[in-house]
TrEMBL record:
This is Peptide ABC transporter ATP-binding protein. One of its GO terms (biological process) is transmembrane transport. It comes from the Bacteria. Keywords: ATP-binding, Nucleotide-binding, Transport. One of its GO terms (molecular function) is ATP binding. Residues 19-270 form the ABC transporter domain. InterPro entries: AAA+_ATPase (IPR003593), ABC_transp_ATP-bind (IPR050319), ABC_transporter-like_ATP-bd (IPR003439), ABC_transporter-like_CS (IPR017871), P-loop_NTPase (IPR027417). SUPFAM superfamilies: P-loop containing nucleoside triphosphate hydrolases (SSF52540). Belongs to the ABC transporter superfamily.
Amino acid sequence: MLRVSARKRCVHMTEVSLLKVQNLRVSYPIHSSILQRRIGENMAVKDVNFTISAGQTVGLVGESGSGKSTVARTIIGLEKADGGRIEFEGRDITQSTRTELKALRRDMQMVFQDPFASLNPRLSVQEIIVEPWLAHPDVVPKNRRASEAKALMDRVGLNPDYASRFPHQFSGGQRQRIGIARALALQPKLIICDEAVSALDVSVQAQVLNLLDDLKQEFNLAYLFISHDLSVIEHICDRVLVLNGGVVVEEGTPRELFENPQDDYTKRLFAAVPVIRPWLNGASSKPAGTIPRY
Ligand SMILES: Nc1ncnc2c1ncn2[C@@H]1O[C@H](COP(=O)(O)OP(=O)(O)OP(=O)(O)O)[C@@H](O)[C@H]1O
């Protein structure tokens, strides 16, 4: 039995704020910025505010360079905030020590766009999934790690018989499932998906989105979902933040943003997207399971 289920949480949506980002500012050193000649323009994130509740999926959209990845990387501790607060379960994590950050890594995981680049090519799938347990040995006892890794493979739709295979022996969609299994290994509460399905074919995208949606229900996971693909965002997100020049210019449900965008930038961003919107044909709200299943 998959041990992750021991931390399975009640699926009732509670409006407890899991992550609270307040007035976040992040800059890159001026010498490393491609904008270095424009003095004062090295601020990638200027003033970002939002919250994510347990079990909620919040989308982050915006053009290239708007600061989406910087927000994600700062939340996970890969970049340092210049100002503002990032509260996780009520604790400001911008001031965390290394030890506190290590503990936080259990609760927050990231799934990247390119699973091939983010998976160690020299490790088998089983070793990739087991790796986080080496840093957090209390999560799964040593003698159960092989079987738990296989159980996780099974849960994300990978054949456990392939546990000794290497990343290059899998397709793009399967590799992304390996990345998701690794992210789940530490039983996180929040998963940040940075363009996690962008490199996949449309049908494989749908399968991975369905998997993420199923896992969300099962483990009451919250997602911060970054994507340039607004139809993906529309299908998976409860709320969407529109980022422009390092500032959140608008926030709402996907329906609100598609039907009645207020900000000019949002209007331009959303107007160009040809997507099927079932509620325009009389449905009262976004129906569940609108992601096509293959
Ligand atoms: N390591 C870095 N060093 C210097 N500047 C950076 C670095 N990473 C990002 N930037 C700059 O910060 C700004 C925001 O970049 P970021 O990658 O967060 O945007 P994004 O919205 O995620 O873009 P994309 O969709 O293309 O990934 C950009 O102006 C970018 O050039």
